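Changelog note: in this version the structure field was regenerated for every chain. One regenerated record is shown below for reference.
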Amino acid sequence: MSTILVIDDDHKLNDLLVSYLHQFGMEVLTATHPDEGLALLRTRSPALIILDLMLPGRDGFTVCREIRHKSSVPIIMLTARGELTDRVAGLELGADDYLPKPFEPRELVARIQTVLRRSRETRLSASTAERIVAGALTVDLRRRTAWVGGALLDLTTTEFELLALFVTHPGTVLSRDQIMERLRGVDWDAYNRSIDVAVSRLRHKLHDDAKQPRYFKTVWGTGYLFLPTPESAKPEPSGA
């Protein structure tokens, strides 16, 4: 049974989710204040967090940032607002998915199941190949860190997930829709620009010139290609 932590000050919604998600084999912990939620994260180690944007004391963006400083637990953000800027900001802070209120409980279940499945797949791939080396770039999937020429890269959660996706699919053109689907489990055209922003930031941090790329090549009208071939992007076994 997966344990889900809901951080939302809406008592009625919390009670609904406790009852509804239990039908799908999920144990639900609830917190109406960020401090209470962070305490449950430390003591109960949930498999996923459902985080409301509007919270007492501090907003969900701040709480998401605090969680990401301590944990890579998957996060689905909820909000009654739903503006595009809020959605993109939440994803760039490290949220795994975003659902505006009001929503159908069954849709939330589908989002939870997709995010948990993707999280399990990521852990499995990390257990079979701890590091991937592509030229001067080294990506440690287990520790979620990356280096270029021995220099540690300062990456956000979204940037690391995007980099990990590319290095595990070298020589494959990935469309923006495919990238969004694999990273977030959804296909929302409105978020395509967040992919472009994240690739641009990765290029900057990798000192990769878009005109003479070493890592990321733009395939106009389609998406992006990670340049190293499968022969040059070699996985190292765990413990290497």
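Spot check on this record: The chain has a mean pLDDT of 83. The chain is about 40% helix and 25% strand.
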